[in-house]
Amino acid sequence: MKDNKASNRNLTKAKNTKNDEFYTQYYDIEREVNAYLEYNPDVFREKTILLPCDDPEWSNFTKFFAQNFETFGLKKLISTSYAPDSKRYKTPYQPTLFETQNPQFDQKKTIINGKIFTLTKDKSGDGKIDINDLEWTYLEGDGDFRSKEIIKLRNEADFIITNPPFSLFREFLAWIVEANKDFLIIGSMNAITYKEIFPLIKEDKMWLGNGFKAGNAFFSSPTTNDYAEGVFNPNTGLVKFRNVVWFTNIDHGRRHQPLPLMTMADNIKFSKHKEIKGKEYQQYENYNAIEVSYTDAIPSDYEGVMGVPISFLNKYSPEQFEIIGMAEDNGKGFSGGIWDGQNPHCVINGKNKFKRIFIKHRNPTI
């Protein structure tokens, strides 16, 4: 628990200090993307993928999709980076040999301009299309995703896939939704509770992806000395966050797997949770719903509304449950069609509960 809290605190700190330099591991990208390919092997076939907010020379997103260009049957891969001089969180910058040894290298542009990498054909002549065939040039601007230059690339693409800046997550997602694009992006689990984002979850326009292994997200970062104990591993050079998930509107098989549940009576009799075993489920004082503190304690036969933790969305199947709304725990409650604005909390014994998502079974079963 101490490790989890430290990870979450550092994620919040990263957002507040505008430290958005976190590079996703190749294994995590491969594991996530494979979940969509298993569900639909042709999901990316003849499609254009844009990897914005990226750093193609360092990014594993670019490496992964470039190396699998032919396997996935891609039409085009586009990757863009953000100019070092425009980043709010400054770190020492040194252009790579890949850039400096290229005839188009520009000492000034490497600092103030972003770069664009594209992959469409076998440029090297070795009979295959892969990372060796990437072509690059400097962008006209700094590569900000909100610029007309990158918006044009967004409009051309079929998929937007990236690890966007944590500090700009709301704005970045709105930028994607505005263009009605398929997407796969990384963000804080707490983003579910944002008033701009929860409606997308509720209306089944966005859901959680397959997920990081065991819920642990590891990133490389240029900053290594500003983390709590247990968050940065000096042996691997990686930073660990627990409260990070994949958000997407691309279908995958896990979201259609029903959650195995016991009846209310069996939960009360056999639950491993002391708050439930041998006790009655508690009713909220200010709303007609029961409190279910653990996802695995959702009673299979309850026909009414239940308040569950936001972590429930890791197990959510739209065929099994209907999302009704949400209540906050910080006085900034979002109604979601439930609350009258008088009390945005879930109250039991006069005390506010943590964030809760309200759900109902579509077909309660014994």
Structural topology:
Blueprint: H1 2-16, E1 23-24, H2 26-39, E2 48-54, H3 60-67, H4 69-72, E3 76-81, H5 97-100, H6 109-112, E4 115-119, E5 135-138, H7 148-156, E6 159-162, H8 169-178, E7 182-188, H9 198-202, E8 207-208, E9 217-220, E10 232-233, E11 238-241, E12 244-248, H10 264-270, E13 289-291, E14 305-308, E15 321-327, E16 347-348, E17 351-352, E18 356-361
Parallel strand pairs: 2-3, 2-6, 6-7, 13-14
Antiparallel strand pairs: 1-9, 3-4, 4-5, 7-12, 8-12, 9-11, 10-11, 14-18, 15-18, 16-17
Mean pLDDT: 86
SSE pattern, N- to C-terminal: HEHEHHEHHEEHEHEHEEEEEHEEEEEE
Low-pLDDT residue intervals, each spanning 5 or more residues = 1-7, 9-19, 329-343
Kindly estimate the percentage of residues that lie in beta strands according to DSSP. Answer: 15-25%
Q: State the helicity in percent bands.
A: 10-25%
Largest sheet: 8 strands, mixed
Total domains, how many?
2
Number of helices: 10
Q: In terms of quaternary structure, what is this?
A: single chain
Q: Which shape, going by the Cα principal axes?
A: elongated
Rounded radius of gyration (Å): 23 Å
Strand arrangement, major sheet: 5-4-3-2-6-7-12-8
